[in-house]
Amino acid sequence: MNQDYIQSNPWSIIEEGFDKERVKSSESLFSIGNGAMGQRANFEESYSGPTFQGSYIAGVYYPDKTRVGWWKNGYPEYFAKVLNAPNWIGIDVSINGEPLDLATCTNIKNFKRELNMKEGWYRRNFIATTPNNIEIEVVATRFLNLSHDEVGAIHYQVTPLNADAEILFKPYIDAGITNEDSNWDDKFWNTTNIKSDKNRAFIESHTMKTNFNVCTFMQAHLVYGDTIKDTPHSLNQEELSIGFEFSQKVKKGEKVSLVKYGGYTVDRNHKADKLTEAAHTALDQVSSLGFDGLLEEQKKAWARIWEMSDIAIQGDVKAQQGIRFNIFQLNQTYLGTDSRLNIGPKGFTGEKYGGSTYWDTEAYCLPFYMATKNQEVARKLLKYRYNHLEKAIENAEKLGFTNGAALYPMVTMNGEECHNEWEITFEEIHRNGAIAYAIFNYSRYTQDYSYVPEMGLEVLIGIARFWQQRVNWSAHRNRYVMLGVTGPNEYENNVNNNWYTNYLAKWCLEYTLEQLEYVQQEHPNDYKRILDKTQLGNDETGLWKKVATHMYFPYSEEHGVYLQQDGFLDKDLIRVADLDKKERPINQHWSWDRILRSPYIKQADTLQGFYFFEDHFTNKELEKHFDFYESFTVHESSLSPCVHAIQAAKLGRMEQAYTFYLRTSRLDLDDYNKEVEEGLHITSMAGTWMSIVEGFGGMRVKDGKLCFTPQIPEQWDMYSFKLNFRNRVLKVTVTQEGAEFKIDEGEALEIVVDDKPITLSA
Amino acid sequence: MNQDYIQSNPWSIIEEGFDKERVKSSESLFSIGNGAMGQRANFEESYSGPTFQGSYIAGVYYPDKTRVGWWKNGYPEYFAKVLNAPNWIGIDVSINGEPLDLATCTNIKNFKRELNMKEGWYRRNFIATTPNNIEIEVVATRFLNLSHDEVGAIHYQVTPLNADAEILFKPYIDAGITNEDSNWDDKFWNTTNIKSDKNRAFIESHTMKTNFNVCTFMQAHLVYGDTIKDTPHSLNQEELSIGFEFSQKVKKGEKVSLVKYGGYTVDRNHKADKLTEAAHTALDQVSSLGFDGLLEEQKKAWARIWEMSDIAIQGDVKAQQGIRFNIFQLNQTYLGTDSRLNIGPKGFTGEKYGGSTYWDTEAYCLPFYMATKNQEVARKLLKYRYNHLEKAIENAEKLGFTNGAALYPMVTMNGEECHNEWEITFEEIHRNGAIAYAIFNYSRYTQDYSYVPEMGLEVLIGIARFWQQRVNWSAHRNRYVMLGVTGPNEYENNVNNNWYTNYLAKWCLEYTLEQLEYVQQEHPNDYKRILDKTQLGNDETGLWKKVATHMYFPYSEEHGVYLQQDGFLDKDLIRVADLDKKERPINQHWSWDRILRSPYIKQADTLQGFYFFEDHFTNKELEKHFDFYESFTVHESSLSPCVHAIQAAKLGRMEQAYTFYLRTSRLDLDDYNKEVEEGLHITSMAGTWMSIVEGFGGMRVKDGKLCFTPQIPEQWDMYSFKLNFRNRVLKVTVTQEGAEFKIDEGEALEIVVDDKPITLSA
């Protein structure tokens, strides 16, 4: 844990007291989003202290020309940068002509931020004395509408406390923004039109190269007692920004508020030449509801989300806050309403990593969305990859693969690869397996087998072809081997026979063969169509069988474990527990070659395989592997502790599972990795959800049935969660006394608890 | 072979006919240099066609901020860029007011370039018709003085052939130059002063960051019959350049010439504020000699070089031209007069690779300089690394090594590492071994054992410490292993137990222990001094012994060969001969991951070890290894064919050796690697010399004696070379009939020919 300033609270994230050193961290932690857009918790008024400004629009990116030291054949031309979008939240404030800036105020008191996760709003209040000695109180409330997802609302209230004062509000929108993360300082945005209409203003811009058209807009009015001013006193238009001025003489102790609506209309949803019109329509809708009406809507919309996805924990506020923060952020990032979007690793909270889609989506996020939303949402995530199949085939062709072999990109926005480290881009190919696994996982959980004949089988064939071409026969071992890969543990590069990748490849080949047989029997028309389209022949499937049967897996007789890769035992096997604490995190203390030579594991690798394919192994085997690999794992990836939490729970090691749970659920709140300023770890948050549901709850799907082995950490009195499972909503409640299972409606459901079948009725 | 336009000639490189497509290649091939500076064969007059402009000053570089896609801990801050220096060769020419530009002339006839290697000059002549229909003949001769190495001379002669004409010469110097290779488009040079004095002009500049001060200067005069004009008609001074105008009405058929001297004075040799003064002095000296006098000096200086270093071949002009081109370029690049300088991989012919010093110097260049120059030159190369020892220790510390362990940089200008690919910078550590080997090689050849106690032992201790810390004990193998390295074959990255590196490390440890003992016995005072300085203890040397004794070497019982690295036999072992020719060179056709997975070897790796330590292995062993590895070697490094040539000759496979010899000696002339435009492969040229002396001549030093097993390719009638060996000059002549050995003077010398001892007297 590297920080502990966040107040414990079951439903809110709360910071008290103003500290300039925490501003950037809090800008990340208090971020808000609604799936279509999002923003860091930047101040509305000017702030001259250190800050990281960020507003983001889903799906809008810039293909920043690749920057490398030394070019390698096969590198992609660009890296998709997450774009800082024009700012619509800005409200400059002056008190008797003195600009309000927290960095120059004195006597800052009662500073508080609250992110109310239950209701979906963010509020900041403080009392401060301006350089001209006016003490004021500010209460600024902001939210991004879930129901009108192009618009956000701000209620910015000022009270002069020690004198009457002239309060001037200057709400503005500003396209003069830059990215912190930029390869060549390219200009990312081009602004083509700035205009106003009464108390509304509009900036039309488009991104360079990708040409996404965006209209950034706002509307503002002032409220003082019964007075509502919706005509600005003046208009300031500059080259890249536009703003209004509203001023008001305010009596000591009285409140004046500026209400502002703003946001973006984008050409993903509207015609490019109708964006301003669409903005007008959106503003008409929200202003007819008013700030309070909108906030009511927002509370209801979040209540609907929580109704299904909340996990309640009693007896441990920090644990409760952690899981809700994770669920809240996942829902702020992706709501499953648009199959063109996906779940970026930093969501709408920062620029780092770029792109929007990693294997995180399939390996970590899918189970969360599958169980807490309508299953259509999970299907959309699968379809996203089907839509990119052609580009995955092109990507594989660039690397020399042929005949429809598909390699999905490591990082992408539109299906094209945009990462450029050879050891990752070309070698961290296990991502392909996670995409196949997600198809299996979806079918297993939902029993919706229609995705495979409609779309999934083509994806599986492309992936199977890739694996078959990616291995080679080793005459020496009399087995197929896979050389030059990087497993999930990125602290190893370019290794041979990474067990996880080999195992996943073998499984993909077998699963594809199974699904081919299934589609042939059950959907002969689809089968014919797909065979025609892919030109798949018996010689190929014969080869797949052969590769699957003769795949090589490194194994240590001495330790009784599969080896993470060839040569793992040559390492200097000092356990993490015996490392000097000063050396950690090793990624901040050691040179890259030293990390690579060491046995230390960044995130679950062999154990990731044991997680995916748990039922292929005995508990004894799991235990051996867990004991061996956990002792070398440093968990310097956000995606690591959740898998270990699930497995520790499975092995009945609840204290250890609880420690992993806290680490994953409060990773950002407590800033374990010393980097929360850069944004939140959104995708790993789904792993936190899994830690409870699959870890403590022991939820699995076996033989088509939902099974549980419920446990509870000794620190907790109770926890409960719901699962959307094949048209029923199952509620699971676990206390120290035992577990309770309920369904609300629908057909009876047979589940298995601690290996005993139980039938539930509504 | 990818081009064949260079005319065969024993002493000259000749191009005939003008072809715009060849300009950049010829600019490389006809480059001239004198160890202190050098330049590509750019035209003196303006040329609007494609060209790659380059003038370089030895030791003057710019630390260009590192550019990477993804930063890795340990990367250096900068990459040392070879700098394009201010241009001093420019002479713009106008004919009746029409600028001369070969790209706009018609009827270009008799175009010829000649690089006369025997005498050290470059000439270009042509007849062309200008757009205003004047047919002119141009003969431009240029050379960089060996004896006055700050100055070059140009004699530029124009003859109007079809009419009288007004010829205007505008000699200039120009600091408004840029680099082709630049990470961030930084400004590399800052110009502080431009001035003229009669027919002399000076530009004072310094490099940014490194602050190398340089005065670029020129002097010019016109010669028409008996008329000499040394007062310019006018002066053009601009922000970054300065030039004169000399004009002359010339009668049809008469010659007019512009004679220009120019070059650089640098603060490595003069006080920074006396550079213009030094330039005046240099110009005084050369102008007193005159162009013809200087050229005479140049011929004599080159004759002295050739006297010792020439290899004569009879019966095969291409082979003869190839070896002389190689020897000529090596001498143009480095003459051994300054221990602060070294041998850049492109010499003065291009910018690629940056830096100046690679392991090429020790592994390839040292033997050439040792045998063809005074042995002080080789000693200077060793001393260069001694001077960098402290920085090599700092470099190792950055990567986590301690206690004086030294890692010499992969690429350097001043001892600091400046390369930034993790797989090279951190892992291609065998370079350390080559530096130790060079000390051994020098002592063995010269019997000068004084370098070790004076300087070498400290270097060896630093290197031994590095190896001992870089290995780790593998409990599994009961041996020391070395993980995460890149061998000389850069088509493998981050491998374990690269045989060459392990072997070299073991040898370094043993050699250091031997030398410690030798210094202890023979130079007790030095021993004490060094032990005090390095704080070396018995526990350390004990550990070195243990590591050397228990080093692991991967070996295949099946093939009877040491394996290039762990897992080599897992590869798909298709021989190069069975590869589709269209796929080659693989580095231009395959993605990086495919290259890495393949068995193909860029340059001698295991065989490099057999080259260094030939006497550790039997001929039978060499043959097995050669047959195994040669079949997978693609020789896509310039440093590869020479080692294979030597070993093929050793195995009596003369036809194969001859093929390798041609490939190495004519690599650039015939542009085997399709990249000669970027500059020449200077360091590999020393390998060509070794191919003849050590390959065909079979020269070795064994038991302190020079040994030969002379052979001759059937294509040749004769070849001969000289060796400077312990104060004698030995001349070796080999014909189809036999070999002849002579010494010119000095004590009698016992050599061994075909295992038979022979005593030579002067």
Automatic annotation (TrEMBL), chains A, B:
<dbReference type="InterPro" id="IPR005195">
    <property type="entry name" value="Glyco_hydro_65_M"/>
</dbReference>
<dbReference type="GO" id="GO:0016757">
    <property type="term" value="F:glycosyltransferase activity"/>
</dbReference>
<keyword id="KW-0378">Hydrolase</keyword>
<feature type="domain" description="Glycoside hydrolase family 65 N-terminal">
    <location>
        <begin position="14"/>
        <end position="267"/>
    </location>
</feature>
<dbReference type="InterPro" id="IPR037018">
    <property type="entry name" value="GH65_N"/>
</dbReference>
<dbReference type="GO" id="GO:0005975">
    <property type="term" value="P:carbohydrate metabolic process"/>
</dbReference>
<feature type="binding site">
    <location>
        <begin position="359"/>
        <end position="360"/>
    </location>
    <ligand>
        <name>substrate</name>
    </ligand>
</feature>
<dbReference type="InterPro" id="IPR011013">
    <property type="entry name" value="Gal_mutarotase_sf_dom"/>
</dbReference>
<dbReference type="InterPro" id="IPR005196">
    <property type="entry name" value="Glyco_hydro_65_N"/>
</dbReference>
<dbReference type="InterPro" id="IPR005194">
    <property type="entry name" value="Glyco_hydro_65_C"/>
</dbReference>
<feature type="domain" description="Glycoside hydrolase family 65 central catalytic">
    <location>
        <begin position="324"/>
        <end position="690"/>
    </location>
</feature>
<dbReference type="Pfam" id="PF03632">
    <property type="entry name" value="Glyco_hydro_65m"/>
</dbReference>
<dbReference type="InterPro" id="IPR012341">
    <property type="entry name" value="6hp_glycosidase-like_sf"/>
</dbReference>
<dbReference type="GO" id="GO:0004553">
    <property type="term" value="F:hydrolase activity, hydrolyzing O-glycosyl compounds"/>
</dbReference>
<comment type="similarity">
    <text>Belongs to the glycosyl hydrolase 65 family.</text>
</comment>
<dbReference type="InterPro" id="IPR008928">
    <property type="entry name" value="6-hairpin_glycosidase_sf"/>
</dbReference>
<protein>
    <submittedName>
        <fullName>Glycoside hydrolase family 65 protein</fullName>
    </submittedName>
</protein>
<dbReference type="Pfam" id="PF03633">
    <property type="entry name" value="Glyco_hydro_65C"/>
</dbReference>
<dbReference type="Pfam" id="PF03636">
    <property type="entry name" value="Glyco_hydro_65N"/>
</dbReference>
<feature type="active site" description="Proton donor">
    <location>
        <position position="490"/>
    </location>
</feature>
<feature type="domain" description="Glycoside hydrolase family 65 C-terminal">
    <location>
        <begin position="699"/>
        <end position="760"/>
    </location>
</feature>
<dbReference type="GO" id="GO:0030246">
    <property type="term" value="F:carbohydrate binding"/>
</dbReference>
<dbReference type="InterPro" id="IPR017045">
    <property type="entry name" value="Malt_Pase/Glycosyl_Hdrlase"/>
</dbReference>
<feature type="binding site">
    <location>
        <begin position="602"/>
        <end position="603"/>
    </location>
    <ligand>
        <name>substrate</name>
    </ligand>
</feature>
